């Protein structure tokens, strides 16, 4: 079983992750891993925090001479903006963030005790872990990519930028949507046999766990609601060369909770950033008086960054489901099992 845990506060010393269950013998290319971290920092509309951080992952354990050992992989990313103990208390929760409910739930009187961990800074760990999973999947010619498709209702790249500029100018924020595509998967990853093995549910859960992601559609997604079955199901064809194939991919590569051999395509929606320069009404959690919500430094738009995080979330789930099917304590063993299966198809 491939599993991971992360720890770290946004302005704490560092962010860490442990990935357990990765087979031995996988070559970890640190340069490629750090490129993923860099991609997460970019994107039009990001705030000033990204100018402070220069995210760089260090491998603490589980690797010798660049190869995984089969033991837990410890990953570390330093926070340049480390100042958690100096930050002043905040008592004016931001609508749309974890602030109010987090204080009620954990008994805090300072929303900083909540926001430090609720912050999307945690997603740097997700990308560090995802970068290892992407390298694993690459061994089997499986790739995961993403595309921003809409920002604040605009689909043209220049208009998207203008939308972000306008939001920034008006001290507001803006959300959007993006697709994540995984190519090269064989049919049969995931299963219809049990609810917790259905791949579409696992993928949606992983992407929805990224802060501010509010919807995940598989293939045609919500558009299925308007359609007739005869128009939307992907007819099946066969040739000796190709084997089974489809001419359309409305299903987004998943049928019955399993990959069907076509690209897996998800469409994901992100809400606008909760911190707003012109803050909404709120209530002070100590005095109970009406106040304006807290304004921290913020990203005007982080859809591009979220898309990179979602690639990692998807890569992690795919690596988990792939290993569930093919097993293997070493890459050699996984490859042998994989080849045996694909030959049998
Ligand atoms: C890459 C990324 C960057 C984000 N940057 C900010 C930010 O600067 N300010 C903010 O208030 N929220 C930001 N968010 C969103 C919050 O983390 C999110 O709204 C909050 O955790 C509550 O979201 P939820 O209701 O989906 O859990 C960011 C999210 C992501 C994925
Ligand atoms: C630190 C990151 O994103 C942060 C996510 C975030 C939030 O509230 O989610 C708030 C901002 O942090 P700060 O208040 O320090 O400016 C973002 O910069 C990151 O993506 O690495």
What does this structure look like?
- This is Chorismate synthase.
- This protein has 345 residues and is an alpha+beta fold.
- The protein has one domain: Chorismate synthase, AroC fold.
- The chain has 10 helices and 16 strands.
- The longest helix is centred in the C-terminal third of the chain and has 24 residues, at 303-326.
- The chain is globular, with a radius of gyration of 22 Å.
- The site of flavin mononucleotide (FMN) has 20 residues, from helix 9.
Please describe the biggest sheet, giving its number of strands, its sense, and whether it closes into a barrel.
4 strands, antiparallel
Going by CATH, the homologous superfamily would be Chorismate synthase AroC
Q: Residue-averaged pLDDT, rounded?
A: 98
Structurally, the number of domains stands at: 1
Bound molecules: flavin mononucleotide, the ligand C=C(O[C@@H]1CC(C(=O)O)=C[C@@H](OP(=O)(O)O)[C@H]1O)C(=O)O
CATH architecture, by name, is: 4-Layer Sandwich
Uncertain spans: none
Q: Give the H and E element order.
A: EEHHEEEEHHHEHEHEHEEEEEEEHH
Q: Helical stretch count?
A: 10
Query: Given this structure, which CATH class is correct?
Result: Alpha Beta
